[in-house]
Amino acid sequence: MATLQDIVSLAKRRGFIYPGSEIYGGMAGFYDYGPLGNELKFNIKQSWWRNMVQMRDDVVGISAAIIMNPKAWEASGHVGTFSDEMFKTSVGRTENDSSVAYLRPETAGGIFVNFKNVLDSMHLKLPFGIAQIGKAFRNEINPRDFIFRTREFEQMELEYFVRPGDDEKAFDKWVKERVAWYKSIGLKNIREHEQPPEERAHYSKATIDIEYEFPFGWQEIEGIANRGNFDLTAHQKASVKDLAYFDEETKEKYLPYVIEPSAGVERIMLAVLCDAYTEEDDRVVLKLHPTLAPYKVAVFPLLANKEKLIAKAESIRDALKKRWMTAWDDRGNIGKRYRSQDEVGTPFCVTIDFDSLEQNDVTVRDRDTMEQKRVAASDLEAYLAERLTS
Ligand code: ATP
User: What is the Å distance from ligand 1's center to 154 Cα?
Assistant: First the structure.
């Protein structure tokens, strides 16, 4: 199993994760994401968004402002009641009591305050969900374990609204759906932990954490909670706006109950990196699921100084990059180039050699099996597509 130090050093060396503002000595609890880390994060978010929004008929997505009217945080209990008042900031040129605002501690607030807007503009019927991906900030935490707990991070949250009474069934369904998504991105080593009543928030009827076994132990990567109608009740009361849903079937008006699967992008990224990191004989390989791999394919001209080889390799790369994030490497021997792509998890490498010029074919090398196969240039895209999407 990888140690955290293995991950930290690979992440820095290969452009995944850098300490925040490093040239000024860093800043505890903040990290910057390099070219490969940024791609990996993007792929995690894209997979979540496709699965949770685009592939479903009952979920829509929004993107709310990070800074909200502070009254929203008073209503949710974050300001005044909870211990963490978060990140205070000031809006406008002059700083006074009425200019105080907060960077959001979670993305869910932006969903609840838009519940009525989305309901009215999209003509939705229960059950339905509203999803959001965005930054969240927490001040009063102790940053630890690399990107596991930081002051600035990204959340992927769904608020799934249901008729009261349908909540327990929906909760069970969402736990299954979320576990299935983790499996679909290759994260198999996960478990469910049901929070006992004394651990969970007072408004929560049930909470199940999805946990991953990190080098520092089993830890939460996502929480799924049955929040009842706590949030809508609080916002309805504080805003004095009617947030009730009119049920055309039963002709009743009520505040729906909500099931909330809430995940952190960076925690999933750390779990994915720990899970993928493999040391084998003379190589380190990140066995990332192809959906998540920053580069799907790397293209190598055998030699950097042969014009015909370069031209052929460039034309192959231009065709592949229309479809996939593609790397190019013309430095050093091919073995070293393979090792370099293994370390960042690129599933396939394509080499163009002198025979390629004669035969119009390429060598495709598989990251996991290290097998090499000659494939006709005209079949290359289909060959890769079959293996990258399976
Ligand atoms: P923990 O108790 O581990 O701090 P939490 O229960 O406060 O987490 P939630 O408020 O339920 O977390 O947030 C949902 C998800 O957001 C978590 O499962 C985690 O993936 C992510 N998350 C929460 N706090 C942080 C943080 N400080 N740094 C990175 N990710 C976080």
Answer: 10
Q: CB-based burial of residue 43 (10 Å sphere; 0-12 exposed, 13-18 middle, 19+ buried)?
A: buried
Which residue from 267, 268, 270, 272 has its CB within 8 A of the most atoms of ligand 1, so it is best to mutate? 267
Q: Which residues line ligand 1 (CB under 6 A)?
A: 106, 138, 141, 149-150, 153, 155, 220-223, 262-264, 266-267
3-state SS, one letter per residue, for 30-58 = CEEECHHHHHHHHHHHHHHHHHHHHCCCC
Task: Name the residue of 45, 107, 182, 262 to mutate for ligand 1: max ligand atoms within 8 A of Cβ.
Answer: 262
Where are the strands (E) in 296-356, listed by range? 297-301, 326-328, 348-352
Q: What is the pTM of this model?
A: 0.96
All CATH 3.40.50.800 domain ranges in the chain, comma separated: 295-388
CA atoms within 13 A on the CB side of 335: 2
Q: Check residue 188 and report its DSSP letter.
A: -
Atom of ligand 1 nearest to the CA of 209: 18
Contacts of 240 (CB under 8 A, 6+ apart): none
Which residue type is seen at 42?
A: F
CATH architecture assignment, domain 4-275 = 2-Layer Sandwich (3.30)
The CATH fold assigned to 295-388 is Rossmann fold (3.40.50)
CA gap 173, 95 in Å, rounded: 47
Of all residues in the chain, the percent with pLDDT exceeding 70 is: 98
Helices (H) and strands (E) in the chain, counts: 12, 20
Partners of 193 in beta bridges:
209
| pLDDT tens per residue across span 257-279 | 999 999 999 999 999 999 999 99
